Amino acid sequence: MTPSADTGEDQDAPVPYIARTRSYYAALGYGAPYAWASFDDVPFQPLSKPLAACRVTLVTTAAPYQPDKGDQGPGAPYNAAAKFYQVYSLDAATDHDLRISHVAIDRDHTTAEDPNTYFPLPALRRAAAAGRIGAVAPRIHGLPTNRSQRTTVETDCPELVARCRADGADAAILVPNCPVCHQSASLAARALEEAGIATVVMGCARDIVEHAGVPRLLFSDFPLGNAAGLPGDVASQDLTLGLALDLLESAPGPRTTHRSPLRWSGRPGWKQDYCNIARLPPEEIARRRAEFDRGKQTASALRETAGRAD
């Protein structure tokens, strides 16, 4: 079934990503559960000028395509070799080939065939052309996905803030993909707000973002990798970005979450399937453990090459 959208409210509860991933990795034999970032106080920066006069930047966790790093196309399996470990910046006036094969998206219910579902630069340009925002900032920025919160907070966030400031950004839209991406984007949103740049996170893992504590979250109840709208549906992508821009203007204070009214109508069962250890036979659990170990080895070698610590 082709994913589509309607305006009916989805009454199903969001996927509990924190609980689901804890039980999943415990079953794979990885010991103590991961401690997700959480803060009581949340910074909040109102827009300093009307949105129609603001310069808006885009922050993504997608990676530039690397043709020598194996399969990174639609439906590709997790590819640790395609990860990146330093903040990068690209010209916002040109198109770019960014992929999400390196993150733990929902590979059973979505294929990442439409980059506009996770990298809404075309929609942001259309918003600028329509006068909804003042301008797209001159660069977009890539944020690494680090399980190490210390690395994200002490290395990646200051670099991202410096680049956004250099570009004269008034606001930033952050679009994460995997569970850890949602944490990294949340930490970055907090840092940007503290630096005077208003933010909104467009995400699918509501519990992770709200657990960290951010100023604004536009929650889309879709499989991971689709926070910017539905595949092949430009209208839904423009609507989703528009909702994020509305939230930049209207949020009365920190921890404001708005839920998109759009509904995912692809294959049913995606919420029950993601990282659900109860649905996996022992041989599949063993296979995934071996695959995960291989990915860790690849990532470790890449981090060493990049001179980074996870």
TrEMBL record:
Gene Ontology molecular function: any one: oxidoreductase activity, acting on X-H and Y-H to form an X-Y bond, with a disulfide as acceptor
Domain of life (superkingdom): Bacteria
Region (Disordered): 288-310
Protein name: Glycine reductase
Originating species: Thermohalobaculum xanthum
Organismal lineage: Bacteria, Pseudomonadati, Pseudomonadota, Alphaproteobacteria, Rhodobacterales
